[in-house]
Amino acid sequence: MFQFTGFPLHTYGFSMQYMRFMSDSMLDCFRLEYDEIKKEMPDVPVTTNLMGFYKNLDYQKWARYMDFVSWDSYPMPQDTPAESALNHDLMRGVGAQNSFVLMEQTPSVTNWHPYNRLKRPGEMRLLSLQAAAHGADAIQFFQIRRTVGACEKFHGAVIDHAGRDDTRVFREVAKLGEELEALGDVFLEGRTPSETAILFDWDNWWALEYSAGPSIRMKYLDAVKDYYAPLHGLNIPVDIIGTEDDLSPYKVVFAPLLYMVKTGYDEKIRRFVADGGTFVTTYFSGIVDEHDLVHPGGYPGTLKDILGVWVEEQDALPEGEQNAFVYKGCEYPADMLCDIMHLEGAQCVSGYLRDFYKETPVITVNAYGKGKAWYVGTRSSRDFYREFAGDIVSSAGVKGVLETPEGVEACVRRGKNGTVLFLLNHNTEEAEVILGTGCKELPGGKEYGCGDSVVLMPKDVKVFLCC
After folding, report:
1. HSE of 102 in the Cβ direction (CA atoms, 13 Å)?
2. C-alpha span between 239 and 199 (Å, rounded)
3. Cβ(372)–Cβ(280) under 8 Å?
4. Half-sphere exposure (CA, 13 Å, Cβ side) for 125?
5. Under a CB-based contact definition with an 8 Å cutoff, are residues 335 and 377 in contact?
6. What is the tens place of the pLDDT at every residue in 404-447?
7. Strands 278-282 and 371-376
8. Are 342 and 307 in contact (CB under 8 A)?
9. DSSP-assigned beta bridge partners for residue 418
10. What is the pTM of this model?
């Protein structure tokens, strides 16, 4: 196996076109190396370390020249379980939803965070098996032994500077290795059975955030997390897809902050909705084409007929200032950006409560063919997204893996051995989960029936082979 180690590219204040050029230039170098190796050793798999949502490089293009995707997972201490899961799902997504390798993680401490907090007992195992639950077929560490010099001498390692095998970290890694060996190939090459997808496009990321206006508070990744987090909380499997991916496998597609709609992509969405799919997009969508040129004729450009609305203006609210709206009897904030829109066939679900655009639509739904297209014209709160995203998937007939207490994650992978269920307790207290089907705990083989309860200790993980 050949592995290339990439290096960061830092650019500031450049246009989307420049970012695309720099990313493609680095990709060309990687592709040339890939091709040369394949000439000499065509059967040797080639990969390189990706780094999650790394803005400077379009990994959806890089993955075309990788025989399997691998990546380095170094979550910040404040990252939520959903944020860690989202990174794994992205890596699975750039690899066409195939399994990936967790090439690097620290067994204890990172050396380059602002505050390099230790992983608490059980946390390394929890994060490792979360990677497996979201598609990892291998769990690896950087580094095996702490170096005595250079910039990573204080980065965590399986073997510390003391050189002993009785440290907490060494014992935890050894125990995880024994557990993975006992699990064997039960989940290897297993796929995530997703009926829901979130669109993520690097060109859109660059174009949106290197544009002048309308708000410096508007961040693409924040908008993606707004919708991913409640789906994760409902244990809904999610595929992260790109603009070239097929939409037909999904019942629901979320496309938050779809500022850039490339030529022909509107037709792909149009067919998806007409065939019965549910499409959800948000404020400041459908504005430009792939050249970052505004679609003439009014926002949201080529999506207007699908969404059934026309957006006349956008009101960028300074931090601390909000409008509001009511959804299902509860008031929620309209924050950061408020699209001021008119109905052109869509139904108004909710309107603004204040300002000169009071009572104009903020949430709309449009029947198009056999499906529906939703438009949410503002950014709101975590409580709203939890309620709204839950309603969307429920109405589309999408169900979660299992109903669990808050902070307990349930994931499945399906493969040659059947369905493997992962239960991960991210809480600092024990939790009880009621199983929805008969299962056999792995390793060990303890059998459970449908309706039986499972108790997970704090930061605990249990793996089951289900009927």
Report:
1. 28
2. 9
3. no
4. 25
5. no
6. 999 999 999 999 999 999 999 999 999 999 999 999 999 988 99
7. parallel
8. no
9. 415
10. 0.96
